[in-house]
């Protein structure tokens, strides 16, 4: 085990410079300096002793239902361990360069492994898990990622599906009516085969 006299001032200075380059602020150094527990966590990470946290989403649980809405359909999918590499953003052929009405898209997606709203709500609670490329499509337009596994009847009586989108510096959810058009920046989130 090293002693304080084993660490040169130059090495300590280099540590501070590198930490500042990655975004450390004075308050972060204070936390480390005053908490042996936090320093042990950093030590464990440096030594490769920290195990990756697994994020398991219960897709069989009842979904969140906004006030005044009703659940019409909720496809149960068991327990899903979140891995963005196992999620496909699906576009209908009619969406590519055009559009499709939501009711027609719902029929097209009926036999596909669409993710339900439990995934949307889990991602909103763990925003750091949302892939960066979900923010915008290849043309730079905001993407609206739909979770077709849960269909609701809104307070106005219309069938709707909730979606995830990035705007104003943060992730949010909203919904779209099935009578509206779905364009090429409006993919459905599916489990990839």
Number of helices: 5
Q: Provide the succession of SSEs.
A: HHHEEEEEHHEEEEEE
Radius of gyration: 23 Å
Helix/strand/pairing class, anyone? alpha+beta
Portion of residues within helices: 25-40%
Blueprint of the fold:
Layout (H helix, E strand, L loop, with lengths): L8 H13 L4 H9 L1 H11 L9 E3 L11 E5 L4 E3 L5 E4 L9 E2 H8 L7 H9 L19 E2 L3 E4 L5 E9 L2 E8 L3 E2 L5 E4 L2
Antiparallel strand pairs: 1-3, 2-7, 4-11, 5-10, 6-8, 7-8, 8-9
Describe this structure in words.
The structure is a single chain. With 193 residues, the chain is of the alpha+beta class. It folds into 2 domains: 7-46, no CATH class; 56-191, no CATH class. The chain has helices at 9-21, 26-34, 36-46, 102-109, 117-125; strands at 56-58, 70-74, 79-81, 87-90, 100-101, 145-146, 150-153, 159-167, 170-177, 181-182, 188-191. The strands form 4 sheets. Strands 2, 6, 7, 8 and 9 form a 5-stranded antiparallel β-sheet that branches. Helix 2 (26-34) crosses helix 3. It is elongated. The model has no long low-confidence stretch (mean pLDDT 90).
